[in-house]
Every structure is written in C-alpha cells, then in structure tokens.
Amino acid sequence: MTKPLRIALAGLGTVGGGVIRLLDENGALIARRAGRPIEIVAVSARDRSKDRGVDISRFAWVDDTTALAGLDVDVVVELVGGSDGPALTLARTTLAAGKGFVTANKAMIAHHGLELSRAAEASGAALKFEAAVAGGVPVIKGLREGAAANAIDRVYGILNGTCNFILSKMEAEGRDFADVLAEAQALGYAEADPTFDIDGVDAAHKLAILASIAFGTQPAFGDVAASGIRHVLATDIAEAEALGYRIRLLGLADHGAGGLFQRVHPHLVAVSHPLAHVTGATNAVVAEGNYVGRLLFQGAGAGDGPTASAVVADLIDIARGEFGPAFAMPADALAAEAPADPGERRGRAYVRFAVADKVGVLAEIAAAMRDAGVSIESLIQRGSSGDDGVGGSVFVVIVTHEGPERAVAQALERLRGSQSLTGQPLWMHILG
Amino acid sequence: MTKPLRIALAGLGTVGGGVIRLLDENGALIARRAGRPIEIVAVSARDRSKDRGVDISRFAWVDDTTALAGLDVDVVVELVGGSDGPALTLARTTLAAGKGFVTANKAMIAHHGLELSRAAEASGAALKFEAAVAGGVPVIKGLREGAAANAIDRVYGILNGTCNFILSKMEAEGRDFADVLAEAQALGYAEADPTFDIDGVDAAHKLAILASIAFGTQPAFGDVAASGIRHVLATDIAEAEALGYRIRLLGLADHGAGGLFQRVHPHLVAVSHPLAHVTGATNAVVAEGNYVGRLLFQGAGAGDGPTASAVVADLIDIARGEFGPAFAMPADALAAEAPADPGERRGRAYVRFAVADKVGVLAEIAAAMRDAGVSIESLIQRGSSGDDGVGGSVFVVIVTHEGPERAVAQALERLRGSQSLTGQPLWMHILG
Question: Does residue B315 surpass a pLDDT of 60?
Fold first, then answer.
C-alpha cells in the first residue's frame, strides 16, 4: 500500500462531521478502492470547542482556515461556504500551491469556477466539486465522463431539495406554499431565511455548473434567469394534476445557434415523465445526448451523508490519480457563449390569473391573448374556495398551444395594471 | 494537442457502426474533452464487403480479428461478442501487449473478468467495459467511482431491455407473454432465439459484474440464481396492479454475513418505487450506499447509439489517462465470497396458483402454507377468463407476510404433484 492521501478539512458543520464519520466507518474499504488510505490530518473551523459528535482531538487544529493550504497535505477540503471570502482565498492559495482542492461550494464554483479551473491547470492540481450539484448524486461525473462522447442537447432537473420537498408536500396534502414552508422551517428542512432555495438562486448556481460541463461553455451564472416557487398556489397544483402534470422547480439549460439558454422556473411536467415521480428532498438530473438519448441520475440532493459521499468520491478519484480538467475540458477550451434570447423560444405555457368575479374579465384576457398572437389550447375558469390567499377571486387557467414565448410575455404586458386582475398572473412553462 | 489515441475496432455490427458514426460526428467535441483526438485506424469483421452505411475504406482492414492486438494502436475495441473464442483470445493478447481493451461483452466479462483484470494490472493496460451493463447508462462508473465512498448494501435494477419492453407492453395492453414476445420478435426488439434475454441469463451476466464492483467481491456469474419472465401471465400483472405493484425482471444482489446473494427474477415493485415507472427498453439500476442512500441511474439499455456512447466514454477515459483497476480495486483485493443461502432470506412473496375449479382446493393450499409456517397476508381467488393459456382454471393468488423464503419453498414442495393444481405455481418476490 502506497502512502496515504493527506487531507486538511476546512469547516466542521454537518457535512464536515459527515466526512469525518464516513472516513472512520468506511476507511478500510476506501483504502482498498483508492489503493491507499485517505487520512485527515488537520482541521479548521470557527469554534474549536463545539461538540460535533466526532473526536477531532486527533487532528491538528488550525485557527486560520486560509492557512490550511500551507500545511504538509495533499488535498484541502473546503466546507466553509460563501462565494467569496475565506473559501475563495483558501481555494486560490491551495491551487497555487499545487495541492488538490475539493469543495461542496456551488456558489463559489458558479461565480469563480473558471478562474479556479485555470489555477488548477496551471499548477497541475486537482479541482473537484461533485458535492456542489445534486448532493450525493454523481451527476458531474456523469456529464464530465459518463456522457462525454455526446453532444448534449439539453440538461435539466430538480436541483433544489427544499423546493421539491415543499412542492410534493403541497401536492400530497393540498396545502398552500406559505403553510408548508412554515412547517418545513419548523422541521429544519428549510432555512430561517429560505430565499436562496425558494427563489431559485441555489438551483441557478448548480445549473450554471452543469451547463458549463454539458456544453463546453464558460460557467455563466449571471445569465441564468431564475424565479422560484413562492407564487405557486395549491390551486395551480390541482389544475396541473387535472391536466396530467405535476409542478416541479426545474433548472433547464440548452445550447444552440441562438446561444446558451439557462432558466430556473417552476414547470409543468407530464406524469409520464420520470421527474414527475421525484418527491421529497430528492434531486434528479436529465441529460439528453445525441447518441445516448435521455440519461437520468437521481438520489439524495442534500444531507450530511450524501454530501460527504460525494466529497469523499472526489478524494478517491484524486487518490487514484483519476482526475483532469474540472469542467471536462481545459478552461481555455471553454467557449464564452452569449446568452440566448428567451423571447425566441417556443413552447407551451400554463398561465393562471386570479381575477375579479365580474362581467367581461374573460373577454379581456382572451382579447389580450388574441392580440398578442397566443393560441389557446384550453381555458378553465373556477371559483376560489376563499382560503387560498386570494380570497374571493376567480381563477382563470390558460394552457397555450406551442408558440413563441414572446407572445405570452406580450399578452401579460397588455394585461398589466388591468382592474380585472386581483393579483399577479403566474406563468409556468410546460416541459416539452 | 497531443497525439491521437489510435484505435483498432473488432466487430462491425450495429454497435461497431455506431462507434464509427459517433466518432465521425462528435469527433471535434470529443477531442476537446479528451485532450486529444480519438482515431480508428484499423477494423476487422467477418464480411468486408457488407454495406454498413459508413465508409470503412479509410481504415486498414485486418482479416484475422485476433491479429488486431499486434498493430500499432493504443486501444482495441472488441464488439464481436461471445464469452470465449476470438473475443477472449483478442482480450488476452491485447492486454498482454500492454494495450488498452474496451468491450461491450458482458458474457466474457462475467466469465473471465477476474483473469482479464489481472492481465490488465500486470501490463499496466486499461480494461474497460461500461457498455457491458445497462447500455449507455454510466452505471459501472457510477459504482466504481461515484459511489466509491460507500459500503454498498444492495444493488438491483432492470438490466434487460427486452424483458422490460415485454412486461410493460403486457401491462399497458393486458396481453399475455407469448403474444407480446411474438410481436417483439417481428419488430426486431427480441432475438429469434430469445432465451438469453427472456430467461434472465443476460441480466445475470450484468448483475455479476455490478455485484463485483459494488461489493469488492470476485465476479461470480455461476452463483447467480436466474429465472425469467416466461411464466408471467396477464393475470399476474393485473393482480399485482390491484395490489399496488408492477412486475419487473430485477437483478438483485446484496452482501452480508451470510455471503454474496445474487438473483435475477421477476419481482413485484411498489408503484411508489421509481423502478415501477421504468417502461419500454429502458434500463435502470439502484445502488443503496451506507452514506449516499439510494442512487438511481436510468437510460437506454441497448441500441447502437447508447452502446456506442458507453464505448467511446471508455475511450475518452483512456485518452485522459483517467483509468485504474477495472473492478474498482486490484483483482487480488477482490474477495472470493461464498454464495448466500437463499433459504435464509426473509421477504414477502406473491404466489399464484392455477387450480382446478373444485371443492377443497383452497383448503389444500391453505393447509400447505400453514404446515410450512407461511403467514398469509391476503388471498384472492378469481375465475379465469379462459383465453390466458390456462383455460378453465381458477387463479389463487397469495401474498405472504414477511417471512423466511425457505417456508414458501417448503409449502410449494408440499403441493408438488397435487391433482388440484393445473399448472406450475409462479412465485415472485416483492421488492422490499
């Protein structure tokens, strides 16, 4: 057996503790698989004395996290978080020192992945971040390696476990968003400030990373159009179900002549599609390749065990010497791609209006659709039950035929400020 | 750009043609990802003049397939098939020459994988066979690398597309096995001699490979207990549906104190399980790890495009220099594990009897179950429609509580030769 892979670990939260427990419990098996032991030698975190349920007295303690890169180690594992600050400093100093860097930090990779990938290539160091996307699911490996023979037409999936937990609970119990969010927060499934999850920012970080690897383009987080699930009502879930769909927050990216398209948005997914059956905090990613067809990767998207599994998988790759450019090709080979114009896209849409119960409202909506050139496939009007947060309103749900998204946007623009609407319309795309 | 990876290709059937087309179409993208071009330089097949829809005149032609290993190439791709014969000779000579060997040949890897893995390690050559299991789905990579940090408790899945095509067509259309098989053969979805697919041998080859990688045990194809879907009736599918299940041919392996357990058998899968929603020729594999939880990999299990995708993914790994021991650890580290005793297993069972419509039959079956200690959860008796191949019979379906499989076997043994039974009972396990 060759010499151990020596690890410094920054961050001792739930995932850091999970990494320590995993290496303790599965260490002998991992040494057989990796060809050498993987040993944590030093750790750093904010509070040395906190009880983490694991013995850290056997590791060297370092007060200044960014000093870990200077130790006699092969790899630094960063579980501190934050797109900048100490995490980024640590990444830069570690890679500059020619040491491997493994992270679960999606925000940092989405923002600074290109720079860090260049730094890794310059020093010959490994840069790996499997845990940054879809927790324990090896989807970065699946795209970087498993599907590497394919031109990827499209990549999309359920990238945020908190949102999927809330949507599938709304679905199962007929409850509204705010109600389920409050319960999820009480149970610890959602953060006290859930903005990054609920509004699609977390999924957007992950999508930007996936799109780069899938398409050979530079990570472009700033070009992801993101909205979340805040405005999805129980009535939307019920109407979607009646139409043969479930609502899922999808990150979706494709890449064609028009540029790189990246969107995080609640979508209607046909019940015949595998993603319609993904419930709870599970993540699932679909990649469509020109030879392999549709690949699906699914599993736990968060939690200390799954995330630690992905972090240690990266360490095993490094211990085996099986690693290369982080984004599947050298940073300089990644194309700087302009964002695609969403108005040019075609698709089917679901639009739900909450309207006043008075004469002429339907005619006004129908006229706006007609004037914008939107072709209506079905229209349903249903009275509100009164306890759905838009009490006293009537719901009008329109499903369009396939057509340009620009037309739907124009129709909604025409209706803006209309006295007939009692709230903002909700426009969701139907996954095609 | 460094020098190309030079390939010799043995076998120019549909998959071989797919590999050539894929490298033609995606070659530039693959060179960016692999860091170097991948170039076929020589080919060999039975018939040089056959029209394959691709131009092979640009490659050197070699009459004797086994001579490919002697050429100036980096990797030999074997798509000839057969567990022994020329494929095995080619594998041995290629690896002995220190050249990479990539194959889609599940039978050869299931039978001779250990020997070939040793040969690869001895010469430092790559041995890769992603296409041997689940076609285009990167499940070997998923287990070998993606889930490598985990002790895998269990691996199971839908490993044969032909059987899943037949079962899901029976399910959708209420038809019986023989009828759907005949149609599948006419359409080319099933072989003229479908034995390997239908009776579970193909799935058993794949399961033996997956189990070895998952558990760190030597491939043990001879220890796989395999039966197929020949005896599944439309009535079984209907009864399962009424109970909340779908029937799927599963390969399932686990590994504990009792040894290595490997089984290919039709199972009842709860409709809440993702595998219940896998229809058509799709393959899907679940791995349950002690940290990652349940991982699912799903996609096209066969076909020239998906299989070529997996073959070329292996070539990209080799071009990148990202490869190591084929079964996830050195051959000598793989444990020689005794097979587990199936009688020791516990589970729930579905047993369907076709019985004569006369007094006392139910009592006889119930007594046999009681005497063997089988605890019955539900029992359904239903008249036959007469057009299901067991005309005039009555069906009795029993679902057991969880208990030892030995007891069910004993109950069926007690009923053997009973005049009350008009056909062989069908015993299926319920996936727990």
Answer: yes
